[in-house]
Amino acid sequence: MAVSFTTERMLHFGDCDISGTAYYPSYLNLLNGVNEEFWSWIGFPWHEIIWKERWGTPTVHLSCDFSKPSFFGDTLTFELTVTKVGRSSMTVEHTVLCEGEKRWTSRQVLAASQLDEHSSIPWPDAVRAKLVSFLPEEEEA
Fold this sequence. Notes:
The chain has three helices and eight strands, in the order βααβββββββα. With 141 residues, the chain is α+β, with helices and mostly antiparallel strands. The protein has a single domain (5-133), classed as Roll (Thiol Ester Dehydrase, Chain A). Strands 1-4-5-6-3 form a five-stranded antiparallel β-sheet. It has a three-stranded antiparallel β-sheet with strand order 2-7-8. β4 and β5 form a beta hairpin. This is 4-hydroxybenzoyl-CoA thioesterase.
């Protein structure tokens, strides 16, 4: 499985509890920022698809496994891999590292959603083509 997008985030004071340990709700906020950056990187920035096109990518499933704590001042590397693209949803796997050491992983399902009716929609053709381009050939849906 190839990594399709990598970015870094530093853990700030507000991301941690009183002991300086990363606080899991802050992890999820960081993960959301990574997702937003990914969508811009592939050419579909959220501020455009949400405000102009009126669709979005809400999370419909999320699981996380935390293997080792991270601390205030750590720089985390987020690796986002697209693992499945369906008619109106996609699955991504996140691996989060600090200096090459795995800190946590996540599996996330995002869906294409029409924002005014709050209903699922098929991926727009250009979006689906871009997402599918990250899949190994044998896994294209």
